[in-house]
Structure to design on (401 residues):
């Protein structure tokens, strides 16, 4: 006989696990039989492991959410690097010039702007919470299709098992099979950039500052790590990223030193390398009857502002809240009108961030003298405009309190 649940979450990434943790702890949780299914084996991160390649800038608001669901202690007990300042500048200027953007935690009365955390550590910590709840977890179990009949939906696993649910949450990332099987269309556009990612050891201290230098080929992000290294996210041409993957340590250190304008002195290659093609995506519908998409399954943004995982966490809060409220009012959480409340809450906010990041990337990746002038003037104005600065920082901090 097929197994039956109220909610099946496909994907144990940050977004899917956050929904699971929130639903498992919500007021109406006795009414919910939950399961999370993931294609991969369970992620485990230990303090003795080297810092993993994939890290994310987690905004203060997201850290507060993780604290509320009980996962943050495990993150900071392992490692997370707080950053209390951010510098953004254009290749035609310097990080300490008047037209560089500067954000300092002290200016906004917060103790830090955010934390650099390994993706796998976040996943491991939220899993720790979910495992203490009454939630069934299924690893190494890729789903291969989705079947729908009236009010019941089922996911089909690779081994042939079928799992029924009132609501299937697609949290299965950028190449979401739930999205595909549900026939949900998305608008996609290529950035024509590949993000080369690695850890490097800088000659000078990173001083807990997150830095971003805009080059004509794309932005170069330098995120501070607890062990003094920096995580470099170099959004550049496919050719340059491919070159970086196979360059010697000396060649890589020298190229990135030049690309960073030596703001941290010499850079020495000191970690694994990876390359991620960048494309933007936004689905036309977040929901259908019995189906909802969260996180990268619904949207993909340029990593230049470090918002992808943060947006996924905000989706999770919104969807869990809609489901909990529906149950409180005796409504059926798989109904489209119920799920549309979630779509209305998140689609506009995510679209704004997506278009802002795409526009910013284009504005900086241009050779036009007029646009160059406009962006330096714009950055200067931004630095000197209290309300606009405050608004942008509030969005970036993602604070809920
Ligand atoms: C270079 C780079 C830098 C970034 N930096 C930042 C940053 O600084 N800050 C930030 O907030 N974001 C950042 N992001 C974005 C962030 O990494 C993603 O937005 C986030 O990890 C997406 O989480 P998710 O849970 O939606 O999806 P994923 O993390 O992709 O999780 C999807 C899960 O679904 C599972 N799955 C997939 N298919 C199936 C299937 N068929 N059956 C079962 N399970 C399946 C997968 O195994 C996986 O566990 C960055 C992205 C890139 C590329």
């Amino acid at each position: 006989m097929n197994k039956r649940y109220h909610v099946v979450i496909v994907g144990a990434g940050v977004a899917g696990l956050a929904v699971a943790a929130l639903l498992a702890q919500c007021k109406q949780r006795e009414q919910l039989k939950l399961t999370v299914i993931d294609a991969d084996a369970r992620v485990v991160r230990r303090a003795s492991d080297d810092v993993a390649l994939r890290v994310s800038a987690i905004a203060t608001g997201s850290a507060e959410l993780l604290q509320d669901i009980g996962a943050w202690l495990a993150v900071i007990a392992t490692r997370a690097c707080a950053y209390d300042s951010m510098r953004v500048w254009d290749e035609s200027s310097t990080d300490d010039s008047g037209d560089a953007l500067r954000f300092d935690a002290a200016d906004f009365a917060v103790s830090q702007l955010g934390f650099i955390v390994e993706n796998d550590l976040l996943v491991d910590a939220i899993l720790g919470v979910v495992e203490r709840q009454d939630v069934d977890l299924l690893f190494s179990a890729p789903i291969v299709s989705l079947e729908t009949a009236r009010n019941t939906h089922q996911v089909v696993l690779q081994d042939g098992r079928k799992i029924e649910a009132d609501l299937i949450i697609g949290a299965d990332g950028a190449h979401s099979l739930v999205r595909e099987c549900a026939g949900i269309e998305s608008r996609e556009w290529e950035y024509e950039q590949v993000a080369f990612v690695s850890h490097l050891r800088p000659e000078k201290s990173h001083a807990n500052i997150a830095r971003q230098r805009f080059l004509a080929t794309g932005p170069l992000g330098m995120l501070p790590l607890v062990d003094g290294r920096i995580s470099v996210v170099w959004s550049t041409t496919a050719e340059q990223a491919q070159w970086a993957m196979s360059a010697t340590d000396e060649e890589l250190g020298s190229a990135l030193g030049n690309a960073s304008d030596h703001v941290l002195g010499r850079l020495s290659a000191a970690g694994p390398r990876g390359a991620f093609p960048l494309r933007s995506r936004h689905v036309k519908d977040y929901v259908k009857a019995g189906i909802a998409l969260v996180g990268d399954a619904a949207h993909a943004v340029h990593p230049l502002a470090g918002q992808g995982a943060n947006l996924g966490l905000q989706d999770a809060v919104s969807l869990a809240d809609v489901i909990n409220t529906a149950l409180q009012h005796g409504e059926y959480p798989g109904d489209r009108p119920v799920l549309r409340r979630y779509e209305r809450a998140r689609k506009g906010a995510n679209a704004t961030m997506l278009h802002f990041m795409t526009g910013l990337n284009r504005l900086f990746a241009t050779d036009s003298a007029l646009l160059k002038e406009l962006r330096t003037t714009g950055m200067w104005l931004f630095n000197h405009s209290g309300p606009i600065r405050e608004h942008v920082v509030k969005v970036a901090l993602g604070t809920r309190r």
